[in-house]
Design a protein that fits this description.
five-stranded parallel β-sheet; four-stranded antiparallel β-sheet; alpha/beta; elongated; Rossmann fold; single chain; Arc Repressor Mutant, subunit A
Length: 224
């Protein structure tokens, strides 16, 4: 999952990036409204974390600009403002959720998970099921029946992204951007290699075919 942080405070921005990356999110960080607007116009994000006060713009106005561009991905607004009318203003500008500073990182991570599941039409519960395959997105545990399947971090991130977009064909470039970010060569076969690893762990031992190759497109996960 790929997240854009829009925050001019260096300490907050660095902490957010470090913690989110430790949770396997691919993270881009912009410190200005102008830079953020360019990023959302040219890149595809699963979620945007937007600070209210920026050096060159107002977070509320930036939020409105993003929505005017028909970008519907969830926006979580961060601010020190705690008045009810400020919260209403933030939400009416197009933000999906609102978190006041200082905040708990655990609360932030929980809000992010809920927003991403909501936009992908997944259950709001932490457990995501496909047949007897179960992902616990809180504990990052994968189970098939009653058996825990051990996955490497990128294998889990890839499976989570596929299942969040279940029954939708996703091309290799999109998978790379959302699971590996810009740390991977676009000509690399890393996606195909990790798909092969996943199949060996969640399909082949159980004689199932959840992970499918879509000709001239990429991959998808689906029970059909």
């Amino acid at each position: 999952m790929r997240i854009l942080i829009v925050e001019d405070d260096l300490q907050i921005g660095q902490n957010l990036k470090k913690i989110l990356e430790s949770q396997l999110y691919v993270v881009d960080w912009e410190k200005t409204g102008e830079g953020a607007l360019y990023q959302v116009e040219t890149q595809d994000y699963d979620l945007i974390i937007l600070d209210w006060m920026l050096p060159d713009s107002d977070g509320v106005e930036l939020c409105k600009e993003i929505r005017k561009k028909e970008i519907k991905k969830p926006i979580l607004m961060l601010t020190a403002k705690v008045q009810v009318n400020d919260i209403v203003t933030g939400l009416e500008s197009g933000a999906d959720d609102y978190l006041t500073k200082p905040f708990s990182m655990d609360v932030l991570l929980a809000r992010i998970k809920v927003l991403i599941r909501r936009i992908n039409n997944s259950s709001l519960a932490p457990l995501i099921k496909m047949g007897d395959l179960v992902l616990d997105t809180n504990k990052r545990i994968v189970m098939k029946g009653k058996k825990v399947i051990e996955l490497a971090p990128k294998e889990y991130a890839l499976l989570e992204y596929l299942i969040m977009n279940k029954c939708k064909a996703i091309d290799r470039m999109e998978i790379m951007e959302h699971v590996w970010g810009e740390t991977i060569d676009e000509f690399s076969n890393t996606v195909d290699v990790h798909i092969r690893y996943l199949r060996k762990k969640i399909d082949e031992p159980y004689k199932t075919n959840l992970i499918k190759t879509v000709k001239n497109k990429g991959y998808m996960i689906c029970e059909i």
